[in-house]
Design brief:
By secondary structure, the chain is an alpha/beta fold. It is built from ten helices and ten strands. The strands form two sheets. A six-stranded mixed sheet has the order 1-2-3-5-7-10, with helices on both faces. The longest helix is centred in the N-terminal third of the chain and has 17 residues, at 79-95. The protein starts with a strand and ends in an 11-residue tail after the last helix.
Length: 263
């Protein structure tokens, strides 16, 4: 694994840490590839049932590492190709990961770094954290799923304000706008995020992933289409071993012991 991405195997969950503090954890292509590899390794591990994503140093992630781009005077780059080869695979991997994800946002989450954080299932931010969509400052548009995540989490008006004015918002504002789950004191951030990851790792994994997929689909489904999706998803959930265990544990008045098994 690249030194730019550290992975700590805690048994039931993996902690994946962006580790370029001198760059405020800005992501270049090797770092993006390493992050995708770390996420893939987590979902391929039989024991891993959740992922906790965070960053080292003063910031979570400031998005793309613009210093890694070699500028040639007068040359125009195909940024669509950059997105298709780099950011889109990362956004898709995170969105479709077969285990639930938690993000602990320490410091600034800017540009694609903000989208990366908001793409996780549960986001907890340090009180000092800030979220910034800075693309308009350099004549670009939000990527890494930003144009999908912002309006669906914060609403159209707030999404437009964030994206067009390119001004940072505080962790408290992000919480009030429904963008994140919780705010923690800086010193307690990792402990609280780890507790959430451990809790998710002990829950019925397939159910959690199905919940994520169903909630995501609601952004574009009609009411009738969503009802059909709920029917089909519930059918699949009902066949999982964890559903049987949950019902049996309820009948026996004991804590359920979930395994996350598909069948």
């Amino acid at each position: 694994m690249s030194e730019a991405v550290r992975v700590e195997d805690r048994g039931a969950y993996h902690v994946i840490t962006l580790n370029r503090p001198e760059k405020m954890n800005a992501i270049d292509r090797p770092t993006s590839n390493a992050l995708i590899a770390a996420l893939s390794a987590a979902e391929e591990s039989p024991a891993c049932r959740a992922v906790l994503l965070t960053g080292t140093g003063r910031g979570f992630c400031t998005g793309a590492d613009l210093t890694s781009v070699v500028a040639v005077p007068g040359e125009k780059r195909d940024l669509g190709k950059v997105i298709e080869e780099g950011w889109n695979p990362l956004a898709r991997k995170l969105k479709n990961l077969s285990v639930p994800t938690v993000c602990a946002v320490n410091g600034i989450a800017a540009g694609a770094g903000s989208s990366l954080a908001l793409g996780c299932d549960i986001v907890i931010a340090a009180r000092s954290a800030k979220f910034l969509q800075a693309f308009a400052r350099i004549g670009l548009v939000p990527d890494c799923g930003g144009t999908f995540l912002l309006p669906n989490l914060a609403g159209q008006a707030r999404a437009r304000g964030m994206a067009m004015l390119a001004e940072p918002i505080s962790a408290e504002t992000a919480l009030a706008w429904g963008m994140i789950w919780a705010v923690a004191e800086d010193a307690a951030l990792m402990d609280e995020a780890a507790a959430i990851a451990a809790r998710l790792a002990a829950m019925p994994t397939q159910s959690l992933v199905m919940i994520r997929a169903a909630l995501n689909a609601a952004a574009h489904n009609s009411f009738d289409a969503q009802l059909d999706l709920e029917r089909d998803t519930q059918r699949r959930a009902g066949y999982t071993p964890d559903h049987a265990e949950g019902v049996q544990a309820f009948r026996e008045k004991r804590p359920a012991v979930f395994t996350g098994a598909i069948r």
